[in-house]
Specification:
Helix content is about 65%, strand content about 0%. The chain contains 17 helices and no strands.
Length: about 450
């Protein structure tokens, strides 16, 4: 093999390693959890967050040198969607340097567990780079979206079993009356399922019978969780897709989506008693008022990443029992980061949600932005958000492929996209060590 050919082959293998790592994270992180009796940590739900965070950070550290190798062999082509990620990471460094407790802001409130620390932000940024470097064609991106849909379905199964009382393991924290799945918190579970369901609805352009079943399982899980913010996000993407179909003069799909939207509203009102309390925002309003005071006290750099809990305790008034609430999140993505990282950090956080609205993945991020106005972002859905940011970034720059895809938007993955998953490729093509197989790798990826 010639040296040039050898280098090309090594580059293809590196890109495949990145894609395999991302596929692994998409499935493994949401499902990772251990028994409540195995870990005794300061955070009550550490038995769910520590395994997820450990898998995420070890895998991103393994991907980082491969990203650097690809960068020196084939420099990345960045566009404007990389600016919000870069701004968010850079201002996280600044806010950490001026934090009221730089150690906590760098490592996190509970080291090794999920947080908004600089270290966590760095790992999420690595995921963004991994997708930009490894998913170069629309076919690869469609396969990634299919993996996300499958991941949401797998994560929905424990939620539904817990709702039915048939789950064999006790994973719900004490005092929580709703299913939590493998997330140990119904709010975290709702944020994740909302994002995967939005992705599933986005890709469901063909083989509707298949994608309808996938989306139905996730929707039932979201209803079982009784996630008000998650259901609101799903309504937003349904309206967005319906308007788009009408503008594209596709009345059949427009009527179908309109019917699904009306059905979801009625089903939610009937099946989710908690939805009737959606107007009761007293708890969140109190947190937002205190967050406003935190922002007013230090609008430039905030109190520092992962310092929201301590700043809130200093300023929040006591409740009916005389005790001050101890939330670690403002229940609003922009408000939270404005409090921790100042107004520039809040603007960067807002750009992460709003900038992709100008990309082909706009409906997914519209649902995400709506949900995050009331929800809480944690390791599983934050991981997916940065992965989808990378997918949205590449959607503008993907080259045409020999399959006729011009790379200017997604037409939705067909069922055959599942044949591109590594396991099915091994079954269908036999040994990957043959020289002919290596030749096909180069032809398909180049």
């Amino acid at each position: 093999m010639r040296p040039t050919r050898r280098r090309e082959h090594a580059l293809v293998l590196a890109e495949r390693f990145l894609r395999s790592g991302i596929y692994f994270l998409v499935v493994a992180v949401p499902l990772a959890i251990v028994s409540k009796d195995w870990l005794y940590l300061e955070a009550e739900i550490g038995y769910a967050e520590l395994p997820k965070t450990l898998i995420l950070r070890l895998t991103t550290l393994a991907l980082l040198p491969v990203i650097v190798y690809i960068f020196f062999r084939r420099p990345f082509t960045f566009n404007w969607l990389a600016l919000p990620v870069a701004a968010f990471l850079v201002w996280s460094v600044v806010a950490t340097a001026f934090s009221t407790n730089p150690r906590i802001s760098f490592w996190g409130e509970f080291p090794g567990q999920d947080s908004y620390s600089f270290l966590a932000t760095f790992h999420y940024s690595v995921l963004f780079l991994a997708v930009v470097a490894g998913f170069r064609t629309s076919e690869q991106t469609r396969t990634l979206l299919a993996w996300i849909a499958v991941s949401g379905t797998l994560a929905s199964v424990p939620i539904l079993l817990q709702y039915l009382g048939a789950f064999p393991f006790d994973l719900i924290p004490s005092g929580v009356g709703r299913p939590t799945g493998t997330f140990a918190n119904p709010v975290f579970a709702g944020s994740f399922i909302c994002l995967t369901l939005a992705t599933t609805l986005y890709v469901a352009h063909t083989r509707l019978w298949f994608w309808a079943n996938i989306a139905g399982i996730q929707l039932m899980a979201l209803l079982a969780i009784q996630s008000r913010a998650g259901l609101l996000g799903v309504l937003v993407i349904l309206v967005w897709l319906g308007v788009r179909q009408i503008r594209e003069r596709d009345p059949q799909h427009g009527v179908l989506i309109a019917g699904a939207t009306i059905g979801l509203v009625l089903l939610t009102i009937i099946a989710v008693p908690r939805i009737t309390t959606i107007a009761d925002m007293s708890g969140r309003l109190a947190i937002w008022r205190t967050s406003g005071e935190i922002i007013a006290d230090n609008p430039a750099v905030g109190v520092g990443p992962d310092m929201f809990r301590y700043a809130h305790l200093e300023r929040a008034p006591g409740g009916p029992t005389g005790l001050v609430e101890e939330p670690d999140h403002a229940h609003n993505w922009i408000t939270h980061h404005s409090a921790e990282m100042g107004l520039p950090g809040g603007l960067a956080a807002a750009a992460l949600l709003l900038a992709p609205l100008a990309s082909p993945l706009a409906p997914v991020f519209a649902a995400r932005a709506t949900e995050q106005m009331f929800g809480v972002a944690r390791v599983s859905d934050l991981m997916l958000m940065f992965i989808l940011l990378g997918a949205a970034h590449n959607a503008k720059t993907q080259p045409a492929t020999k399959h006729g895809d011009r790379g200017r938007g997604y037409t939705g993955p067909r069922l055959r996209c599942l044949l591109h998953l590594p396991f099915f490729r091994l079954l269908s093509r036999g040994s990957l060590h043959r020289r002919s197989a290596k030749r096909r790798w180069l032809q398909r990826d180049r």
